Known about the structure:
This protein is mainly alpha-helical and about 130 residues long. A two-stranded antiparallel ribbon has the order 1-2.
Amino acid sequence: MERVEELIKTYAAIDAEAEDILSDRQEIVELNDKRNKTREALRQLKQISSSKQKQQSWVCFANTFLKVDTQACMDMLEQDIQEMDAEIKSLQDGLKSKVAGLQKMEGWCVSLSTCPLSAFQWQVMYSPKGSN
């Protein structure tokens, strides 16, 4: 009976780790979409403000529209892109270790370079073709 309980705990831990990995991947996708939309907005602002005149643009903060200097708005968007890039990179770096941990929990080889061949695999590789 305690073997069954141990098995259930193991599967619960594997499931929790897998859910964490999936949520991180979904967050990366959402941040990527947000970053792409921010880049589109920045590009449009750069096209609009190509003239030397000082212009202002309407920007939505929360539920309020404000008229802000276009250059200041572009600076804010560039800063947002940098912050999103850093957050995506940190999520991706954390994801690597989480996936490796999940694979280790499931009993997989984390990398081909760290898993030696078993005796059976060696035997199959070096046996004559007609001996099977």
